[in-house]
Amino acid sequence: MAPPTSPACAALPCPAPPCAALSCIAPPCIADVRLSLGPGGLCWVLGLARTLPVWLVETHWAIVEDPFHLEQEGLVRALAALPGEPLEACRAALSAACTAWREARRAWRLEAHANLFWSADRIAEATVPKDGDGGLIDRRDALAAGFDRRQARPPEALDTLADCARDVLALAAALAATPGGRPPLVLTTLAEGEGEPALARSLEAAGIPCRRLDPAWAARFDALLAPALLGAGLGAALGAGALRLAGLQVVAPGALGAGPVNGTDPEPDALAWNAAAIGDEERLWHGAVAACWEVRCAT
């Protein structure tokens, strides 16, 4: 099958092998859906995976595979990032991005792509490092259930964009609690006029303050990301003002004590997902800290 032919992929002839030296020093990165499914998202994600581990969340693939999600206007407008354009134009842009991801997954066998991973409802459906943490998915699901509890979201609530935020933040906290691992950096986009990422507002709604880094600290994170951004072509996009990125890091010390969401389930791979889960998963977020900043080209 031929590789995807969308403009987002045109400059990316084939996924390149990772740079071993950079992978050793760079922390993992989680691509929020506003980046992965936004303009050029496929190109940016695969570009970042050349030099550092990149994670997607299961809601990324849910949107890609199920056109049902394209009926949610808030989601469509947020991901299409076409302010002022008609809804149908935004829906067409997001649909094209989903098509590009589907074609890339088949043509390039993304499940086997070096440095590209994603979470899933079941461990058997996730793509995780072969030598990774076997408890990661259980810990992520417990944190997701706890996050829903903190926001008091009803189990029947239908808001895919909120699901995406929960999944990204839960995965970030779960990876940060991986023994021997490094807290990941979440990359997302900033809309015109936004001073902080939407993920920061999701944290605030869950009672977890997300502080904006001062310029000196932000510059340290920018320097850490610079090789990966330049290798992915994002340095040019940022420098030209064609894209605004935000970084975010969240650490939940209580996540070290996370276990399966539903410890009584006779099928160990069956995980409860929402605020109806049995247990006190909310406690896993006690003492959590988060910080965000606008990513700029390191000088």
Map the helices and strands.
Layout (H helix, E strand, L loop, with lengths): L6 H4 L9 H6 L3 E3 L1 H4 L4 H8 L5 E3 L1 H8 L7 H8 L6 H21 L8 E3 L17 H16 L8 H17 L8 E5 L8 H8 L4 E3 L2 H18 L1 H6 L5 E7 L37 E7 L4
Parallel strand pairs: 1-2, 1-4, 2-3, 5-7
Antiparallel strand pairs: 4-6, 6-7
Features:
globular, seven-stranded mixed sheet, alpha/beta, single chain, 299 residues, 12 helices
Describe this structure in words.
This protein has one domain. Helices cover 41% and strands 10% of the residues. It has twelve helices and seven strands. A seven-stranded mixed sheet has the order 3-2-1-4-6-7-5, with helices on both faces. About 12% of the residues have low confidence.
> Which regions contain 5 or more consecutive residues with pLDDT less than 50?
5-24, 261-277
- The count of β-strands is 7
What is the H/E order?
HHEHHEHHHEHHEHEHHEE
On the 0-100 scale, what is the average pLDDT? 86
What structural class is derived from the secondary structure elements?
alpha/beta
Tally of alpha and pi helices:
12
Total count of domains = 1
Helix-residue proportion? 40-55%
Q: Using the CA coordinates, give the radius of gyration.
A: 18 Å
Strand content: 5-15%
Give a quick account of the main beta sheet: strands, pairing sense, barrel closure. 7 strands, mixed
Distance between the termini: 42 Å
Give the CA-based shape: globular
The strands making up the biggest β-sheet line up spatially as 3-2-1-4-6-7-5
